Amino acid sequence: MLYLMIACQALLAGVFVIALVGKVRGRAALDEFVASIVALGMFPRARSVAAAYAVLGAEAVVILALVLPYTLLLGFAAATALLIVLTAGISAALRRGRHTPCRCFGASVTPLGRTHVVRNLVLVAVGCIGFAAGAGDAGSAAHPAGVALALATAAVGALIVVRLDDLVGLFTTSVSPR
Question: Residue 107 gets which letter from DSSP?
Fold first, then answer.
């Protein structure tokens, strides 16, 4: 269970770090993220801007809670809760016919869709599994090889999550006949 917890912790922390950095890496990226939240039409403009900054703050709290050993379970719970809120927001926007670009990890032209809902639900499952594994771990000692394998697995998982739009695009792009 220890290595499963480490893999879930590293995966979620990695995904949230990449997401936060992608949104705040420059003024243009931040403005595009805020504009994407406004374009979802969930709230009036001022509330949407506040919601965008709340998401950034929540992502920072999740990262901090996931990397500190004494707040790890809180980090899993916070990550899961944030992902549920984001998934609900995406689902509500899709029901309203909004197809704004996904700015989850910074610049992207891919509109939000069911793929993003499924991605977030998988991450919710990772948060729940990490929480259960962390709650069940009685402080067992970690072997370096096991930690390395858990971190490598998490890195591959984070890469798949972050580049999911590109992976989906590889398999859904049609070639026009000549």
Answer: -
